[in-house]
Amino acid sequence: MINQPQSDDSDGGLLAQVAGGAETAMNHCINKYGPLVWSIVRKYVRNPSSAEDVVQETFTDLWKSAKRYNSTIGTETTFVGLLARRRAIDFTRKANRQPHLEPMPESDTLELASTEPSALACCEREDVKAALKELPEETRTIFSLHFDEGMTHPEIVEKTGLPLGTVKTRLRRGLIELRNSLRRLDDAQPQDTTSS
Amino acid sequence: MTNQELMNRFEELEAGRIFGDLEADEIREWEELSKDPRCQGDPSLELLATALDIDFDEECDEELPASLRKALEEGMKPFVVAEATDDKVIRPSIWKKIFSDTETAWAVAAVCLLLLVAQMFVDESPEKRFAGSPEALVAQADDVIQSKFGGTEAFGQMSGEVVWSDELQEGYMTLTNLPANDPTLKQYQLWIVDPDRDEKPVDGGVFDIPADSGTAIIPIRNPLVVRNPQAFVITLEQPGGVVVSKQEVVVALATAS
User: Fold this and answer.
1) Fewest CB within a 10 Å sphere: which of A76, A151, B87, B117?
2) H-helix or E-strand containing B4?
3) Cβ contact, residue pair A13, B103, below 8 Å
């Protein structure tokens, strides 16, 4: 006889059902998030065959890690997108023969969650758009080339004529500045004690 | 370098990690700084980068290729918890409850950008294959650990074995004469002791033993990656299991040989 162990995570909607091994939920998950994962991966992995492999790896990750999704942290979409993005970036790094980087220790992340719950609060789409406008024009252009068109750093260099180091710096510091802007925005908003 | 300068440098390296553009020397620097208690990992940057990826995406309605769709459906099968089809397969009642749930409305709202901070949670999973049974695991994996369970005094009549593969991150317990539990009162929970990972045991899943079960095969469900398990411990816990066991009722123990 085979007894299936149970998940004790019941807060995650669809992903909670996936964590429980529900076939219907897994199929629904493929329907719902497949196009998103495919789209993110295709941005970074140009070879269609390789992209399909990365999508499969992403969903395998999802089946195994769905239990770890925490609905108080972010949306299921963001969680799934994060898995896809990590896999895609990892693939491109390996393809470029860059050294492997170990993932951030999980215990640190868990600890952070309990000690700094307000590191970044709710960000509506409009908030992100507004914060993006605060970035320098050059950085916005590089962001668009990277996130919208999925350009690699060398491609951005070729497109913009900027040195590689500048592209890297603009992306890195732009992301940090954008996050900081969103935090400031959140701090400036009155606290809402009602759930939306 | 002041504390602020140190944290700023780590944050810039962390952003580079998220963009996947760290040079070898930067990776070494990141690894060094990440050990510094002043440099806590902050998932907000990666969440934001993901949100930007989603937000900028204008083609997320593109259908999956049929071949990929089929491959995904095939790939999920090893993770599906099968319906009870005969007297050898037991489906815990919780699955029925889960199946009866409707999707919550907020999941639809997931298409919006919501960034919250916190933990998240994802191990780089090393799995590439899935054996599906203890026998297949032993046959397929080159690094299988096999250990005998010994029951504690109150559970001295039980016997069992655990098989585990670090490579596949897959394992099974085969348990005989473990007393049936009432899931509304107590449930069994497996713990994996992996000192290389954490001093606290890793949750290996909650499970039930029905009456007259004879020998039960329990798949191990570890949400976290286990690298070097030294022992497997079964405890009896409150329904649903616990995050950290007080080990008030230790049922059985298997040490890795």
Assistant:
1) B87
2) helix B3-19
3) yes
Tell me, yes or no, whether B67 and B115 share the same domain: yes
Same domain, B57 and B116: yes
pTM for the predicted model, two decimal places: 0.55
Comparing CA positions, the residue from A41, A43, A36 lying closest to residue A152 is A43
- Inform me whether the C-beta atom of residue A70 falls under 8 Å from chain B C-beta atoms: yes
What does the alpha-carbon distance between residue A40 and residue A171 come to, in Å, rounded to a whole number?
A: 18
Q: Domain containing B18: what range?
A: 3-123
Q: What three-state secondary structure class fits B188? A: strand
Three-class secondary structure of residue B145 per DSSP: strand
Residues of chain B positioned with their CB less than 8 A from the CB of A81: 50-51, 53-54
Q: Report yes or no on B129 lying in a domain.
A: no
Residues of chain A numbered 173-192 and touching chain B (CB < 8 Å): 173, 175-176, 178-179, 182
ipTM for the predicted complex comes to 0.79
- Residues of chain A in contact with residue B99, where contact means CB-CB under 8 angstroms, are 17, 22, 24
Chain A residues with CB inside 8 Å of B216's CB? 1-3
Q: How many CB pairs under 8 A join A and B?
A: 348
Q: Which of residues 107-136 of A touch B (CB under 8 A)?
A: 107-113, 116-125, 128
- Would you mind telling me the total number of residues written for chain B in this entry? 257
Closest chain B residue to the Cα of A111, Cα to Cα: B119
Residue B188 lies in a domain: yes
Please tell me whether residues B138 and B251 are part of one structural domain.
yes
Contact A118, B117 (CB under 8 A): yes
Query: Which residue shows structure tokens 């080990």?
Result: B247
Count of domains in chain B?
Answer: 2
B60-111 residue pLDDT tens: 567 889 999 999 999 988 888 764 343 333 333 333 333 344 454 444 334 3
Say whether both B116 and B148 belong to one domain.
no
Can you state the percent helix, strand and coil of chain B, rounding each to 5?
A: 30, 20, 45
**Nearest by Cα to B115 from A90, A88, A31, A82:** A82
| B168 and B95, same domain (yes or no) | no
Are B147 and B96 in a shared domain? no
Q: Return the residue of B nearest to A92 by Cα.
A: B20
